[in-house]
């Protein structure tokens, strides 16, 4: 009996071992069958997830492209709304047309002043050159005369507007008016005074018009500055109305204002230079007239001395005759 019990126990243990082994193999086979299905499901999930991610990336890129494409348009529209369209002509004529009425009046006045400057320059230059040339010729002709009578004969060959002829005729007139005078020194003083007046009158005549040049040269910069100040005031008013400090908006108005100052300088600088040139040239002209006057007075003094010497000689001879 004991032997049977032991055998039955051994047999039950073997059964248990066989059962456990069978269960292990069964579980392993089931695990192997389940793992491919899981891998397939993972692949399906990955294939489903990847397109979704790519789609999201593509959608994001499309949105960025759309925003990038729309951004310049929005910026350009905003810039167009913030900055008004600028069609200003920045040429001198265009700035004049866009300028204020006061600035236009200033520019027109300065333009007329510049035209007056160049007109006076051309006319006075021709007058001075002609007068100097005539004086040189007359001085060369009178230099060889020995007395006032010869000088008068030579002067009669000059033109009617000759200044040398006027000087010599004035001396002849003084001699005729002082024919009864016995004081030769008085005649010389009166003749010199009359000659000085003629020389001064010739200088004043030649200076005619140069005072306009001096006025233009002194006043034009200030007139241009007035136009500039007025234009800048209008520019500031425009800035306040448009509520923008954009240089593209402000610059045209300031340029129009500064054009007035430029025109003032254009009118003033040539006027000052021409005035100084004419001042020196007229001074030289007056020196030439004074030379002719001095030569005529020299001839007068010589004639009076000869007349005095002749009178004294005649008186001496008459006294000698009476004594004899």
Question: Would you kindly provide a brief summary of this structure?
Answer:
The chain is an all-alpha fold and 324 residues long. Helix content is 89%, strand content 0%. It has helices spanning 2-82, 92-98, 101-142, 148-155, 163-177, 184-207, 210-242, 247-323.
Mind explaining what this structure looks like?
Residues 36-67 are annotated as: Disordered. This is Biopolymer transport protein ExbB. The protein is mostly helical. It has helices at residues 2-82, 92-98, 101-142, 148-155, 163-177, 184-207, 210-242, 247-323. The protein has 8 helices and no strands.
Specify the structural class. Answer: mainly alpha
Residue stretches low in confidence (pLDDT < 50, at least 5 long) are: 1-7, 34-61, 63-86
- Secondary-structure element sequence? HHHHHHHH
What's the shape?
rod-shaped
Round the mean pLDDT to the nearest integer and report it.
74
- Amino- and carboxy-terminal Cα gap: 231 Å
Q: Give the number of DSSP strands.
A: 0
Please describe the biggest sheet, giving its number of strands, its sense, and whether it closes into a barrel: none
Number of helices: 8
Beta-strand fraction estimate? under 5%
Q: Which percent range fits the helix content?
A: over 70%
Radius of gyration: 59 Å
Summarize this structure as a short list of keywords or feature phrases:
324 residues; mainly alpha; 8 helices; 0% strand; disordered N terminus; signal; transmembrane helix; transport
Compile the SSE list and pairings.
Elements: H1 2-82, H2 92-98, H3 101-142, H4 148-155, H5 163-177, H6 184-207, H7 210-242, H8 247-323
